[in-house]
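Human: Here is a favour to ask of a fellow structure person. Comparing notes only helps if you start from a blank page. I am asking you to supply a protein in sequence and C-alpha cell form. Write it directly below this note and I will take it from there.

Assistant:
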Amino acid sequence: MNNVVTEQVQPHYRLLDPSQIEQIHQAVLELLATTGVRVLHPEGVRLLRDAGCEVRGENRVLIPAHLVEASVRSAPSAITIYNRLGRPAMQLEGRNLHFGLGTDLLRTMPDDTVVELRPDNHTAILALTHDPKLDDLALMEALKSPAFYVGAIGSQRNQAKRKERLREFGVTPDQLARLHGPVGLKNGARTPPEIAVSILAEMTAVKYGYRIPPPEPIGAAAAVEAGCAT
C-alpha cells in the first residue's frame, strides 16, 4: 500500500544581496551588447542607431554598455502620466501599483489588493509586471475568485514556469486551467496598441463563452513572430 503525503507549500521570497544584483546587472549589459533586442518601430531603430547602437538586419539592435549606463543615470526617478483632460492620472515611481481605469493608486500588496477588490463574474484580472513576486501573489488570489478572466502577459516558456510555481504554492489543477497566457488572441499583434486590442478581444470572447482557434497564416507578414505568440 502506497502512502501519499501532500504538503502545502507557502510562498517564500528572499531578497538578493548586492553582489547578486550586480551579477545580474552585468549579465544584462553583456546580453544587450552581444545579443541585442528586436525593435519593431523603424523610428526607434533610427534613434538607437543615431545614438551609437549597432543595427544588424532590419531591426536587431545591439546596445553597448555605456549607453545603457548613461540612460539609467539620466532616467527620471518618477514620471507623471496625464489623462486626456490634462490632469495628472498616474505617478510612476518605486513600486506604485495602479488599478482600475488608471486613476487609482494603491500601495497594498497584490494579493491583498485582489482580496479587497472582491472580484465577481464581471471582473477581468491581468498581471502585467513580469515580476513573479508581484504577479504570482495576485494570480493566486485571482484564480480562487469568480473573475471571468484571469491572465498574465509573457511567453509560453514563462507561462509554463509560472504554472509550476503556482502549483507548488497550492493552486489546484482546475484553478490553473483558468489561467490565460500568453494572453491575447493570436492575430499577429506586434505593437503595444495591437497587443492591447488582442487582449481585449480575447477577454470579450471568454466573457461570452467563445473559444477562438489559432489563425491560419495566409501572407508573408505572418512569418514574422508576433508579440503575443511567444
User: Anything to note?
Assistant: The longest helix spans residues 18-34. Residues 13-75 form one domain.
